[in-house]
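Second attempt. The first submission of Alpha-N-arabinofuranosidase had a stray character pasted in from the spreadsheet, which I only caught after the job came back as garbage. Lesson logged: always re-copy from the clean sequence file. Corrected sequence (507 aa) follows.
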Amino acid sequence: MERQVFNPYLPAGEYIPDAEPYVFGDRVYIYGSHDRFGAPMFCVNDYVCWSAPVDDLSDWRYEGVIYRKNQDPKNRLGLRLLFAPDVAIGPDGRYYLYYAFDFMGLMGVAVADSPAGPYEFHGHVHYADGTVWGRRKGDSFPFDPGVLVDDDNRVYLYSGFYTPVPAIATGFRSLGFDGGYVLELEPDMVTIRTPEKLLFPKSGPGSFAGHEFFEASSMRKWDGKYYFVYSSRLNHELCYAVSDSPTGGFRYGGTLVSIGDVGLPGHDDETRATNYTGNTHGGMLRIGDDFYTFYHRQTNRSSYARQACAERLDAMFDEASGEWRFVQAEVTSCGLNGGPLRGQGRYEARIACNLWSKDGAGRYDGANPAKRLAAHPYFTQDERDAKAEVGPIEAHQYVANMRDGAVAGFKYFDFDDSRPLTGIAATVRAHRGRGEASGAFVISVDPAGLSVVATVPITVNTADGWQTFRAEPACLPAGINAHSCPLYFRYAGSGSIDFLNFELMTR
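This time the job returned cleanly.
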């Protein structure tokens, strides 16, 4: 039976936000930050790398630690954190890794002879006189690098941030925060060749009103056009812009993905989000004429345990303009699978792409989200984080704290006409410290719960541990597209449950 791939596409215990995907040779590599489960801050771990064969995006391989934060001579004690990186092949054929240390306001570069490293410190981006970029009066704030080595081997570095950072955080002084910038580097990949230029102002003319630049610069070049991906001031979405030049003239293209599906029909604003929102960051991948957007989702009622996800994009090539155009992707459970998941077998609840309480969803950024969203469901795990040297742990991630009216949605499944659905089982437990829970999962093919597939009765006590409950028979309502079918698990009852997995049973 063919292997499937889900969202998040890495193991349950791995937390890689900000992932930039690239094809090097016959493999896809992702480079991202590295969150630590349960940490009080972003990006606490060292950089690691994952890769998969170009023709099998279900087979992700852990490449290990590729760069440690204390390898940079300005961070020998390892106290500063490695934020979102990017990688490019230099004119010399080697691989260059760009990174910013949290809010320190400087850009580091490391180099390796192969995509998965190990990488060694190469230098800090600096002017010809040796002055480090970010330390000269008038400099912008070096943050979230995006790197492009063009066909003529000219090197462009993109950077920028929306929100001013106090001088105490940079260790130097307050820097420019007017939006997204570009500067050109020498072939050595570290010396500034041309002064920085504001490309994406955060306000005023050319600011893409309603979707202004916030952070997360990422650049690609396809068929002679330049595609800039960024996170907008809305924070929960990735947008793109297109130009004929790497240094100007960008036109707003649209939204690639929102982690709460905000912007899709019926989800006009965050009050109608299908999932909990916060920051997201990523890039685009092209394999032949298939395009994907890579992004991250939030977990654990915080912004500090984010997981890598991806969706295939609906793309159209416009002959008149010579541009690729993309439709906003829906967040799904089957992202890189190449189609819906099989409508049979056992699935982990952690692959839910939709999650909300009876009062809707909410944002994980801002003040004290765990307290503010105490009555809401969330993704979490019981196990502690592992050290990167041994790889991600075999965590049991699950949906926690589902109270009356909470919904976990999964999209999409392909139910084989020759093997119809006959039953559904769900494995749950009473949420810790909440005593007994009694009610049912009402499983439907619509978010409102009107077209019911099955009702699974549930009665659990804190002392019981994980328990499996079944509903037989179960069947899809008439008129439903069985080959692209969503399932929504709505808890109706008292108490609070944790949801581990479910099984779709067929004849």
